[in-house]
């Protein structure tokens, strides 16, 4: 039986991953934690600063934790507002989790990396697993360092850390928390509300993206794969779909013909332009059978359906 600790559980990914892990392992085996309280949380929840190794160790010992999903981080766009503070949170929390895991003999750790590890000097049309890593954001630099430390802890201490380079994750469950790919979630809300979406990314900038259900399934699948199948100990490229703002708008317009877009690119455009357009995830497909289930059309139907349902429910409550 696994007992699971999740850091950053209140975030965009954490909310959905926590519910999935509860469904698999049971509500009593999953400890969701975050810096911020979550009074309405259904299950076990604790406030935990993921930069505090002693607090993490105390939780591990108190609840006989066997696996950690370390999600807490500051993302790309928010990170540029405070580069040194972002480095501090992302690296301090990484070391706190890895050290607490090593000292307490944790069986498995999940640490998400990102397409932000890549910089402008790669083949952006199909970025391979082993491309050069020279990111231009502090977030990307912290993820490259995290990947190398994950590999180090595995080689040096045998700590079984598994990692994915998530593309931009698109889900209806909550709004994202300060990334460059956030536009691809916000756009669906504006479409349902009948408003024009003012996009901060230029019309023809293509980025790798993934539907939340696929991202969560990939996370569970890599964590459940036999140890000998995990051959990449930095982080696996993970791909699903790639599109531009004008392409996602076109697919939304097939469902909502009146939907309109305008474009006011800001500093996030420079970040987006430095990232891959499409990434090659063949090692993930070969080693642990990764295969996405959603494309842009299928995801769009589901996003619009679920978000409309949420707004209708909110209206009923009012
Ligand atoms: P998010 O910003 O929505 O959530 C992060 C959570 O971490 C927040 O709830 C925040 O309160 C918490 N947090 C911040 N500092 C903390 C600390 N010191 N201690 C404890 N909690 C703290 O982010 P997300 O989108 O859910 O991303 C989760 C992870 O996945 C991150 O590591 C991120 O880099 C990675 N990732 C996300 C995406 C994406 O598109 N969402 C893509 C690539 C990688
Ligand atoms: C961001 O835009 O910062 C994240 C990511 C791709 O890591 N969504």
Structure description:
This protein has 318 residues and is an alpha/beta fold. It folds into 2 domains: 4-168 and 211-237, Rossmann fold; 170-208 and 242-276 and 296-317, UDP-galactose 4-epimerase, domain 1, CATH 3.90.25. Helices cover 45% and strands 14% of the residues. The protein is built from 11 helices and 14 strands. α1 packs across α7 (212-224), α2 runs parallel beside α4 (83-103) and α6 (183-193) crosses α11 (296-317). The longest helix has 22 residues, at 296-317. The radius of gyration is 19 Å and the shape is globular. The relative contact order is 0.13. Nicotinamide-adenine-dinucleotide is lined by residues 7-8, 10-14, 34-36, 48-51, 71-73, 75, 89, 93, 112, 114, 166, 168-169, 176-179, 181.
Short summary of the structure?
The radius of gyration is 19 Å and the shape is globular.
Q: What's the CATH superfamily of the largest domain, by name? A: NAD(P)-binding Rossmann-like Domain
Spatial strand arrangement across the major sheet: 3-2-1-4-5-7
What is the CATH class designation of the largest domain? Answer: Alpha Beta
Q: Strand-residue fraction?
A: 5-15%
Could you say which overall geometry the principal axes of the C-alpha atoms support? Answer: globular
Radius of gyration: 19 Å
CATH architecture of the largest domain: 3-Layer(aba) Sandwich
According to CATH, the fold-level topology of the largest domain is: Rossmann fold
The tally of helices reads 11
Task: Report the sheet with the most strands, covering strand number, pairing sense and barrel closure.
Answer: 6 strands, parallel
């Amino acid at each position: 039986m696994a007992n699971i600790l999740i850091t950053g559980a209140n975030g965009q990914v954490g909310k959905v991953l926590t519910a999935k892990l509860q469904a698999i392992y049971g509500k009593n085996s999953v400890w969701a934690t975050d810096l911020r309280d979550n009074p309405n949380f259904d299950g076990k929840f604790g406030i935990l600063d993921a930069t505090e190794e002693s607090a993490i160790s105390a939780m591990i010992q108190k609840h006989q934790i066997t696996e950690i999903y370390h999600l807490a981080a500051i993302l790309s766009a928010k990170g540029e507002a405070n580069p040194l503070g972002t480095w501090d949170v992302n690296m301090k929390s990484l070391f706190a989790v890895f050290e607490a895991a090593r000292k307490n003999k944790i069986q498995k750790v999940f640490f998400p990396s990102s397409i932000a590890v890549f910089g402008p000097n790669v083949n952006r049309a199909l970025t391979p697993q082993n491309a050069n890593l020279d990111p231009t954001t502090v977030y990307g630099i912290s993820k490259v360092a995290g990947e190398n430390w994950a590999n180090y802890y595995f080689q040096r201490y045998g700590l079984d850390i598994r990692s994915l380079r998530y593309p931009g994750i698109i889900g209806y469950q909550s709004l994202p928390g300060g990334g460059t790919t956030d536009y691809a979630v916000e756009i669906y809300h504006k479409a349902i509300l009948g408003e024009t979406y003012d996009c901060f990314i230029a019309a023809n900038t293509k980025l790798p993206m993934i539907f939340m259900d696929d991202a969560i399934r990939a996370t569970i699948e890599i964590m459940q794969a036999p140890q000998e199948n995990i051959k990449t100990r930095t982080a696996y490229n993970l791909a699903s779909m790639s599109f531009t703002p004008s392409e996602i708008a076109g697919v939304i317009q097939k469902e909502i013909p009146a939907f309109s877009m305008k474009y006011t690119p800001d500093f996030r455009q420079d970040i987006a332009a430095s990232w891959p357009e499409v990434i090659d995830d063949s090692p993930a497909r070969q080693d642990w059978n990764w295969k996405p289930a959603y494309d842009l059309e299928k995801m769009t139907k589901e996003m619009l359906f679920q978000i409309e349902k949420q707004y209708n429910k909110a209206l009923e409550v009012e």
